[in-house]
């Protein structure tokens, strides 16, 4: 099973889809994507409340998609059922200030806590934050608390598990702020069940000039043994 999480950024969309398909994902979460001409059982669209862009969830091959009942919240965290060779729940993430990045994320986790624990569940996308964003002086470390909830539910960050690194210590960024390499951040994640990671797990960032020409984010590519 290959999962790709990528904020593809605004701009000509056909080139982005072609680049995504070259990665050969089974399931992909595309943030900052345009609305498709139509939906299907392999393409779902979740518009944002902040712009004309939103989240596309795409599947390929034998994997099919179905909307799950959504909470009465902005589409910062949205539930999808993936069926096919591997059946699982997917929470596709693209946070924006609703009313803040942290609250958008934590509200989504709270709304879908039962779904996450019912599992197997994958949580993937552009979180626009990380435990590294929490300051030591903060009384409430919002990002750390949210990620801890995912860990307690039996999920692991695929990139961090595979590379053996801590949050904030990543050698590979997923985002160049304002497309400036000197301002790197790692804010895109894919959490998978620990049981999947124990079977087989690989995770890497698709990095290079061909990707920086398409977006200010780089695709996170995750392979599991299921």
In total, the number of strands is: 14
What's the mean pLDDT score? 95
Beta-strand content estimate: 25-35%
Helical segment count:
7
Category by helix and strand content: alpha+beta
Radius of gyration from CA coordinates: 16 Å
Q: How are strands sequenced across the largest beta sheet?
A: 3-4-2-1-14-13
Proportion of residues in helical segments: 10-25%
What summary fits the major beta sheet?
6 strands, mixed
Order of helices and strands: EHEEEEEEHHEHEHEEEHEHE
For the termini, the CA-CA separation is: 6 Å
Give the overall silhouette.
Answer: globular
Poorly predicted regions are none
Report on this model:
With 226 residues, the chain is α+β, with helices and mostly antiparallel strands. It contains seven helices and 14 strands. The strands form three sheets. It has a six-stranded mixed beta sheet with strand order 3-4-2-1-14-13. Strands 5-6-7-8-12-9 form a six-stranded mixed beta sheet. Strands 10-11 form a two-stranded antiparallel ribbon. Helix 1 (13-22) links the parallel strand 1 (2-7) and strand 2 (27-33). Helix 2 runs parallel beside helix 4. It starts with a strand and ends with a strand.
């Amino acid at each position: 099973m290959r999962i790709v999480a990528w904020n593809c950024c605004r701009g000509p969309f056909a080139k982005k889809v072609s680049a995504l398909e070259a990665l050969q994902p089974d399931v992909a979460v595309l943030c900052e994507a345009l609305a498709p001409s139509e939906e299907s059982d392999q393409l779902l669209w979740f518009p944002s409340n902040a712009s004309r862009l939103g989240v596309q969830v795409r599947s390929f091959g034998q994997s099919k998609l179905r909307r799950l009942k959504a909470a009465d919240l902005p589409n910062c965290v949205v539930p999808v059922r993936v069926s096919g060779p591997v059946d699982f729940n997917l929470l596709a993430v693209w946070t924006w200030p609703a009313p803040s990045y942290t609250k958008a994320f934590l509200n989504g986790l709270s709304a879908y806590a039962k779904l996450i624990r019912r599992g197997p569940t994958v949580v993937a996308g552009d979180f626009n934050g990380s435990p590294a964003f929490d300051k030591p002086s903060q009384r409430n470390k919002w990002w750390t608390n949210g990620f801890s909830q995912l860990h307690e539910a039996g999920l692991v960050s695929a990139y961090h598990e595979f590379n053996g690194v801590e949050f904030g210590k990543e050698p590979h960024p997923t985002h160049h702020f304002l497309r400036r390499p000197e301002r790197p951040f790692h804010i895109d994640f894919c959490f998978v069940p620990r049981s999947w990671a124990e079977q087989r797990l690989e995770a890497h960032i698709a990095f290079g000039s061909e990707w920086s020409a398409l977006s200010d984010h780089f695709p996170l590519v995750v392979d599991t043994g299921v």
